[in-house]
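Cross-check.
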Amino acid sequence: MKRHILGLAGASALAIGLQTGAALAQDCSVNVGTLYPTSVDWGRPIAETALWVGEMINEAGGVDGCEVNMILRDDQNDGRVGVDAARALVDIDQVQLLIGTVSSGITIPILTSVTAPAGVMQMSCCSSSTRLTEIAASGEARGLWFRTFATADVQAAVAAMLARDAGIESITVVYKNDDWGQDIGRMAAAAFEAVGIEVHASIALNDAQPSYRAEATQALRDQPGALYLALYPTEGISFVREWLGLGGTSVMIGANSLRSDDFRTTVGLANLGDFVGTDTSSPRVPSAEAFVDAYAAHFGSAPSGPGLSNSFDAAAIALLAYHAAGRDATGTEIAAQVPRVTDPDGEAIPATVEGFAQAMAILSEGGSVSYQGATGAVTFDANGNVSAPAVSWVFDDSGMAEQRYISLEEVSGFMASIN
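Predicted model, tokenized:
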């Protein structure tokens, strides 16, 4: 199998026709929009994972017998760029399905101003803001919205669990000043307070400031016992260096957005010995273990970094739903087929080329399947949300290592106790 090396700049697009030799003899194709921040280090593997699924679907026979043409655009982790790229995919490339993106602050305006008004289905791997639940519940998303990543309240609750178990008595919350950061920052502060941890302050960081020294000084004023960081690597690196330079504590809890080699190497492993991160996790089931093995065989290394398993499942479920709806389907018709792909009573199918071929045969005959993927047997609620276990993780010489697995039952029980 070939691997696509992605290095896109600006809003330019790379249209990738995923040819797989003799597996596809047909002369039709379907365009699928793929929108991810490929110009940042943690975004490229997420996009590559989605493209890999396109290869597998083509090898299994394509969407309704047609070749999948994954059209990839780079949102540069910027809201304005992301909306423009999404409009190009919808208006120029005429996609009925858009897979992406990562940041909630980009996903929200795309959903409300581009995909939902145009009747295009949108499936995100990684956007976690609860604002998206509100949009779906209000009807504004028109039933076109799904995500394979649990909402931000899971990570917020797990951060409070870790802080409580570590004996932390006071904390300051530092968050990115966008939809995602405001959402998770607010929920994290409430969760800390619910377990008896004093929250000294909640401080917002704006993009592209030349310095975060003023914010670091403000955070240091009350001498908190720890920091909670809901930041992306760029501002996270700048803020943490200022914070440590001013003598701030090295005890930090971070959201999964800091699960980045750039953050680890630039801040320095010596300064991150007391850092612990949170993330949602795949359940400990055979399909999740099979994904790790398949990923390593395809890319040459085990999956490391945020969103990879979620990206795989987002692309797989969306493309199988497209197959079930038919090559000429609208976004509304594709979205209507998602329950047939994730039916708990359907035939269990593995996330392999053979499994995809089996699923497509069953779906073509009017049946339903229970997709068993990288994050387990995925099911969605009425607002396009999923539930998930969680993990804590740390930085080490090899990159990032899991510290503790927290089952779905434990996560749900803890969230109920603090709510």
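The chain has two domains: 13-149+307-377, 152-282+390-418. The CA atoms of residues 175 and 230 lie 5 Å apart. Passed to J.P. for a second look.
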